[in-house]
Amino acid sequence: MNDLTIAPGPGIPGGLVIVAADLTERFAKSSGPGGQGVNTTDSKVQLSVDIATRSSLSDAPRRRVLHNHEHRLDGTVLTVTASTQ
């Protein structure tokens, strides 16, 4: 897995790089409709990062992420899921 580069945008004017070692990648079968292939192939990926331990985030952005995305966190871990059906 490579480092994750996030382009500059609101809240991160300089962009952000999350090193691959800080990311956890997990593959699984997607649920729901999608034909025979959805049950036999890994069609969902989850990418997780522990916001509290991210060294590239200074204290102010870290607090902002933990506060603004509290409903999406499992403790301090942010997980993004992408799947095909």
Automatic annotation (TrEMBL):
Segments forming domain Prokaryotic-type class I peptide chain release factors: 18-60
A GO molecular-function annotation: ribosome binding
GO biological process, one term: rescue of stalled ribosome
UniProt cross-references to InterPro entries, sorted A to Z: Pep_chain_release_fac_I, Pep_chain_release_fac_I_sf
Protein family per UniProt: Belongs to the prokaryotic/mitochondrial release factor family.
Protein name, entry field: Peptide chain release factor 1
Classification lineage: Bacteria, Bacillati, Actinomycetota, Actinomycetes, Mycobacteriales
